[in-house]
Amino acid sequence: MIKELVRDEIKDLTPYVVVPKEEAKKIILDGNENPYQMPLEIMEKFTERLLQMELNRYPDAGCNNLRKKIASYLGQGINAEQILVGNGSDEVLQHLVQTFIQPNEKVLCLQPTFSMYKVFTKIGGGILVGFQLEEDGTLDLNNFWQAVKRVQPKMIFLCSPNNPTGGKIPLLTIAEIVKEFKGILVVDEAYGEFCQDSIISMLDQFPNLCVTRTFSKAIGLAGIRLGYLVGNKPLIQEVKKVILPYNVNAISQMMGEVILDNESLIRERVEKILEERERLRSLLEQHNGWYVYPSEANFLFLRGKDIPALANSFEEVGIQIRKFSGDFKDAIRITVGTPEENDQVCRVVLSFIERGEKNGTQM
Questions:
Q1: Do 10 and 316 meet the contact criterion of CB atoms below 8 Å apart?
Q2: Is 168 in a helix, a strand, or coil?
Q3: Residue 270 contacts by C-beta under 8 Å, 6 or more apart in sequence?
Q4: Span between the terminal Cα atoms of the chain, in Å
Q5: H or E element at residue 140
């Protein structure tokens, strides 16, 4: 009976399943999280602020203080009126679909990419169409334009750096796309802090461009679910119409404000992660049994015939990495961990390669 009452758009969906962090797994490298816990002095600042809060009162519905701090953090001429805060960047991505996509309108995204674009589009009654990246994870712009002409989407999602491949679309390419595209271009910069530049620098040139970001990756606060949308004021004003009152709780707002007052910590940790990413890449690229995709994020994406066996080797020693299925069953994604965690990853990789050499096979 219940199934018959469910909306058609929902019937065929399956719930988003998060692989639980198994107690047997010693090292968790599957969620692209920042591997570093907050230092004690930051935790103490959280506690001090928490003790001063009136939690019997509703939070600031407009996240006004937090938006000002985000604007200062971003720089590039961005002001608080151009920012909308959500319960994770997932929420603001869904708000964009709710605002602009009507039933049966098309949305275009890259493949492979963040799986929730499809879910948000389908829930909103839209139709998501994927555009396949090249074998090396790059975007063929000529083929992309052919897809745009064929599909006629109202919205395009570009994840840059892309999850799970890690590649970044050049800013000039994004600028060319948004200049010619007549719909809404959403650039998901969840991993933006790991890059040298951002399309936010060109935001004032394009009224149909918007950018989503998160506190879950480089900033290291995945547990508080905080993200935001950056766009020109007319776009932000329209998206505000679909936001529920008090959508971001007071504690998350407070923690976001505190961490942005300690911006140097974010930068230091990003630098450490980038150094470790290159250390892992250097080792992984020594083996020709798989292809290591170029990455400007905090993870590495590998594909090859030996990858399922390598994934099993990680599981045997309690390292949890991201495995894929279907067309990407020959792929894994490894989040960059702490130096100690990455040492363990290196040991598994070296052991795997040595076993192949001893067996006389090219693994």
A1: no
A2: coil
A3: 193, 194, 218
A4: 53
A5: none
Structure tokens at 198: 């951002």
What does DSSP assign to residue 34?
A: -
Across residues 99-123, what is the average pLDDT? 96
Q: In the prediction, which pLDDT does 361 show?
A: 53
CA distance readout (Å), 50 to 38, 63, 258: 16, 16, 11
Tokens standing for residue 227: 């993200």
CA distance 272 to 337: 10
Cβ atoms of 276 and 342 closer than 8 Å = yes
Q: How confident is the model at residue 109 (pLDDT cuts 50, 70, 90)?
A: very high
**Helix (H/G/I), strand (E/B), else coil: 99:** helix
Contacts of 352 (CB under 8 A, 6+ apart): 306, 309, 310, 313, 363
Residue 10 has what DSSP assignment? H
Q: Which long-range contacts (CB under 8 A, 24 or more apart) does 76-79 make?
A: 76/198, 76/200, 76/201, 76/203, 77/204, 78/200, 78/203, 78/230
Residues 153-187: pLDDT tens digits? 999 999 999 999 999 999 999 999 999 999 999 99
Tens digits of residue pLDDT in 214-264: 999 999 999 999 999 999 999 999 999 999 999 999 999 999 999 999 999
What is the reported pLDDT for 180?
96
Residue 289 and residue 306 in contact, taking contact as beta carbons nearer than 8 Å: yes
Dihedral, 236, 239, 245, 246 alpha carbons, nearest 10: -50
Amino acid residing at 358: K
